[in-house]
């Protein structure tokens, strides 16, 4: 049975907020943690006092984003957008299942890095893949915004490798702009009239909300 539009859109709002809220609170309560230098995953590292909090944020995001992704793909008429968002969610579950180890350099850490890399790439790709579908449904301003969001996310995430001492801040920037994009997109879906309505549709994905 398809997930109701309002429930799916709610997932698109709750998933990013749970993820951002977990790393924001976790970073604030952890002595010596530098959000500009330290990766988000360190908050869920084995033995970290914030492991339960951050892991919960990962799991909520990983479970709810695919539920939202199905509706997002339907609204935009794009299986590519749907698939990218689904992969981002599932990869985040992989990050939760493979936390960084205390020792570092273990096979589990390699698996963690692979899952994180896939998730980051899928996050950046989602708004980029939405550009064409948005233009097809007459959302030109939203398409332009999605292009900027996707490009900024991709550049920031590449920067985490090139600028190691600011990797945490760049990681947060790259992921958060897409998180906000999802929240805006879900808000648009909530405001938009269901398919088949005879009234004009709301012109506001990402540029509103």
Map the helices and strands.
Layout (H helix, E strand, L loop, with lengths): L4 H25 L21 H26 L2 H19 L9 H30 L3 H23 L4 H25 L18
Tag the structure with descriptive keywords.
209 residues; mainly alpha; 6 helices; 71% helix
Q: Any overview of this molecule?
A:
This protein has 209 residues and is an all-alpha fold. It has one domain (5-191). The protein has helices at 5-29, 51-76, 79-97, 107-136, 140-162, 167-191. Helix 1 packs antiparallel against helix 2. The longest helix has 30 residues, at 107-136.
Compact summary:
With 209 residues, the chain is mostly helical. It has six helices and no strands.
Return the string of H and E elements: HHHHHH
% residues in beta strands:
under 5%
Total DSSP E strands:
0
For the largest beta-sheet, the strand count, sense and barrel status come to: none
Counting DSSP H or I runs of 4 or more residues, the number of helices is 6
Q: What structural class is derived from the secondary structure elements?
A: mainly alpha
Assign an overall shape.
globular
Low-confidence stretches: 195-209
Mean pLDDT: 91
> How far apart, in Å, are the first and last alpha carbons?
29 Å
Number of domains: 1
Instruction: Give the helix proportion (percent range).
Output: over 70%
Gyration radius, to the nearest Å? 17 Å
């Amino acid at each position: 049975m398809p997930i109701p539009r309002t429930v799916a859109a709610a997932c698109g709002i709750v998933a990013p907020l749970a993820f951002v809220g977990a790393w924001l609170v976790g970073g604030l309560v952890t002595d010596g943690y530098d959000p500009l230098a330290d990766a988000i995953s360190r908050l869920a590292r084995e033995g970290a006092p914030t492991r339960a909090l951050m892991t919960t944020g990962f799991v909520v995001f990983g479970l709810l984003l695919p539920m939202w992704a199905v509706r997002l793909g339907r609204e935009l008429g794009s299986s590519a957008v749907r698939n990218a968002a689904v992969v981002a969610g599932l990869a985040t579950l992989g990050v939760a299942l493979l936390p960084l180890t205390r020792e570092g350099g273990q096979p589990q850490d390699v698996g963690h890095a692979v899952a994180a890399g896939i998730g980051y790439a899928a996050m950046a790709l989602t708004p980029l893949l939405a550009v064409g579908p948005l233009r097809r449904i007459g959302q030109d301003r939203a398409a332009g915004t999605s292009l900027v969001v996707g490009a900024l996310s991709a550049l920031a995430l590449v920067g985490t490798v090139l600028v190691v001492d600011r990797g945490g801040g760049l990681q947060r920037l790259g992921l958060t702009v897409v998180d906000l994009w999802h929240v805006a997109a879900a808000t648009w879906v909530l405001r938009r009239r269901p398919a088949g309505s005879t009234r004009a549709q709301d012109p506001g994905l990402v540029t509103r909300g």
